[in-house]
Design goal:
Blueprint: E1 3-7, H1 17-30, H2 37-43, H3 48-56, H4 65-77, H5 89-98, E2 101-107, H6 111-121, E3 127-132, H7 144-153, E4 160-164, H8 167-176, E5 179-183, H9 190-195, E6 200-202, H10 205-210, H11 216-228
Helix pairs in contact: 1-2, 1-4
């Protein structure tokens, strides 16, 4: 049976979280909202609507949401050419794909933003599919994006591992019944990732690549080989 390696992109494969923080902070400031950058940082990884609800509350005037999101998109778009993948990101995806894993990106990014992120990673040959927040009714931390990614890969939850950098990634994977791995390169503390459900935590893609033989990927591989006997 096939196995799936599910990857968040922003802050996990691409060093983009700080750029999102600046773009959202400025968009919110332009909209008359004074939100500290540390709060914005903790919300990165949520789809736009959920991010605004998390930062501004469910009782806010939603009439300005589209303007805030558009402002963020415009501000963040100025950084597309500066996006850089973390060391080892492309090699990690290629190694997993070469080892029989179906690599699926699970992201809130879409359209030009997703194109820019994929260009930064530069590992399209290793990527089997992409699941975006637009494909499902609810984005992370709901399990919907993970479940959609599993359907694209054609594998059950127990044959998959999710790699992400935010508590939202960990919560979504846990709710979908998928083993999850946390990376510290997105700026979220180890304890927070573990509390949210991370089975293991590594510094970044390069660190995970160096430990694939002992990471949760090895557990899923061993269970697959055992069931095939």
């Amino acid at each position: 049976m096939d196995r799936a390696a599910l990857f968040d992109v922003d802050g996990t494969l691409v060093d983009s979280n700080a750029l999102h923080v600046v773009a959202w902070w400025e968009a919110l400031r332009q909209g008359g909202h004074d939100v500290p950058t540390h709060a914005v940082h903790r919300a990165i990884g949520l789809p736009g609507e959920k991010l605004l609800e998390h930062l501004l509350g469910p009782d806010r005037d939603r009439s300005g949401d589209d303007r805030l999101s558009a402002a963020h998109d415009t501000l963040y778009g100025a950084y597309f050419e500066r996006l850089r993948a973390f060391d080892g990101a492309a090699e990690l995806l290629s190694t997993l794909a070469g080892g029989g894993w179906k690599v699926v990106l699970v992201t809130s990014a879409k359209d030009r933003e997703l194109e820019a992120l994929r260009a930064a990673v530069d590992a399209d040959a290793a990527i089997s599919a992409t699941a975006t927040a637009d494909d499902v009714a609810e984005g992370k931390p709901a399990p919907d994006p993970i479940e959609h990614a599993l359907s694209l890969a054609g594998v059950p939850a127990e044959r998959a591992v999710l790699v992400g950098d935010s508590v939202w990634d960990m919560e979504a994977a846990r709710r979908a019944g998928v083993l999850c791995v946390g990376l510290l390169c997105g700026g979220i503390p180890r304890a927070d990732l573990e509390d949210a459900g991370a089975a293991a935590v590594y510094d970044d893609a390069k660190d995970l690549l160096a430990h694939l033989d002992t990471a949760p990927f090895a557990k899923v591989r061993a269970e697959r080989e055992s069931s095939a006997e």
